[in-house]
Specification:
With about 450 residues, the chain is α+β, with helices and mostly antiparallel strands. Helices cover about 45% and strands about 15% of the residues. Strand 13 and strand 14 form a beta hairpin.
Length: about 450
């Protein structure tokens, strides 16, 4: 690669608050991906952008650079509009395992590439791999083969997909430049666009258990994600959703799979069913199988009630090497050796549940990882018995914990007591979905 630009001059330009051109950003990212500039130089660029900001043109160029640092999958040979969903992550967020078979069973192809969990939020790949035999590591030929056969594939990111993003994220993690919306948006969208999608639905979470703590920050991220998607010619719709308490009742890998099985049988918790049907319905609409989101929601509900979504889930589990017997009969799955209950010390109503602390408690029990090398225990986790607004009696169980690490129980119990607040008066319910963002702007969600 020729030295078209002076690297130091580009860093200085960004340091001084100027905007880089699309060509300059493409040069920087390509040179870094090809090992032609040093980590310390691209780190300086990342910090300069973090401190001085990036406009939409720069954010789009960054996304495009990362997208084209590897292979962009060509799914044009598969009939229909290909649609995926991305969540910014939260405690108990297992919706991908529900909506993917739902949408595929209606006839919309879903090419889903997911990641692993780190910290208080779980990863879709970890949940899938809690199913004995289920594999997510595959080459692109196998990826295309599976989606051609089932309208669905559940895979991990391969080394061919957006390699620049992987390199840049590792640097962002150690240079305190993770929490920057243009970098977050570029990382998310480069991987999603590389899947071969035609449209995308986004679940942007805010609250105690989310990456974005406020509605305002979540709105800013949603708007940037949507604009990038639209600039790449992909119809994109984002919803802002509440993560001030865990989603559903189960937190932990197999526990969440089991809750997904219940949802696909039409027996999931209300919040899980409502949000899954909304996201699935939107994907069905963007996939051209419904004339509106409302019609898409009805089709989502129908394919669950008639059993087609559950059968699609069985089909994809078997196709990707999983043992479907534990899906059909979850009770036969091994249990953690130790369990404990958190009991209420007073009577009243559940006022709040700190999702972050509950997620970290689940991690300490073995359900998550502090570093990427940590091994996850699929049987560990937490099952809530109460949610915010529920009445509770003194001595009644708030939640049950499961672990194979008995030494953690005492510490985690104290942590969980601090995460749950009880009040005399019943709190006002919070909305699960507050806003929708699309090419027409952001507005309060109504359905």
């Amino acid at each position: 690669m020729s030295s078209k630009y002076n690297i130091v001059s580009l860093i200085r330009k960004k340091r001084d608050g100027e905007s880089l051109t699309s060509d300059e950003i493409h040069y920087l990212i390509k040179a870094y991906t090809n090992h032609e500039i040093e980590d310390y130089q691209i780190s300086a660029f990342l910090m300069a952008g973090f401190l001085n900001g990036m406009n939409m043109e720069e954010a789009t160029a960054l996304t495009d650079s990362m997208l084209h640092s590897g292979i962009v999958v060509d799914l044009s040979g598969i009939p229909g509009k290909k649609v995926d969903k991305h969540s910014t992550g939260g405690v108990g967020d297992k919706l991908s395992l529900i909506l993917a078979p739902v949408v595929a069973s209606v006839g919309v192809p879903v090419p889903m590439i997911s990641g692993r969990g780190l910290g208080h939020t779980g990863g879709t790949l970890d949940k899938l791999e809690s199913i004995p035999g289920f594999y997510t590591d595959m080459n692109l030929d196998r990826y295309i083969e599976i989606i051609s056969k089932h309208n669905l594939v559940l895979a991990g990111q391969t080394k061919e997909i957006a390699p620049a993003d992987k390199k840049l994220y590792a640097l962002r993690d150690v240079t305190a430049t993770v929490e920057f919306i243009p970098y977050i948006a570029g990382s998310i969208m480069s991987k999603k666009l590389a899947e071969g999608i035609d449209a995308l639905v986004l679940d942007v979470k805010y609250g105690s258990g989310a990456f974005m703590k406020t509605v305002e920050d979540a709105t800013e991220l949603a708007e940037e994600l949507v604009e990038i998607g639209e600039r790449f010619g992909k119809k994109t719709i984002a919803y802002l959703t509440n993560m001030n308490q865990p989603l559903g009742f189960n937190i932990g890998n197999w526990l969440e799979v089991e809750e997904c099985v219940n949802a696909l049988r039409g027996e999931g918790p209300d919040d899980i069913m409502k949000l899954s049907n909304l996201l699935s319905g939107t994907m069905i609409y963007l996939g051209g199988k419904a004339g509106s989101v409302e019609e898409g929601i009805k089709k989502s509900e129908e394919t669950i009630s008639n059993g087609k979504a559950f059968q699609k889930w069985i089909d994809i589990v078997e196709e990707q090497g999983g043992d479907s017997s534990v899906i059909k009969n979850p009770g036969q799955y091994p249990k953690a050796r130790y369990e404990f209950e958190l009991k209420s010390e007073e009577e009243g109503f559940i006022k709040s549940m700190n999702s972050y602390e509950i997620g970290m408690g689940s991690l300490e029990l073995g359900a998550g990882r502090k570093s990427i090398e940590d091994i996850i225990d699929p049987t560990a986790g937490i099952s809530l018995k109460k949610k915010v607004g529920d009445k509770i009696l003194k001595g009644e169980t708030i939640l049950t914990g499961y672990t194979n690490k008995p030494a953690t129980i005492e510490t985690v119990t104290k942590q969980l007591y601090g995460a749950v607040k009880i009040s005399v008066e019943q709190p006002e319910p919070e909305l699960l979905v507050t806003h929708v963002c699309d090419s027409e702007g952001t507005r309060a969600f109504e359905l």
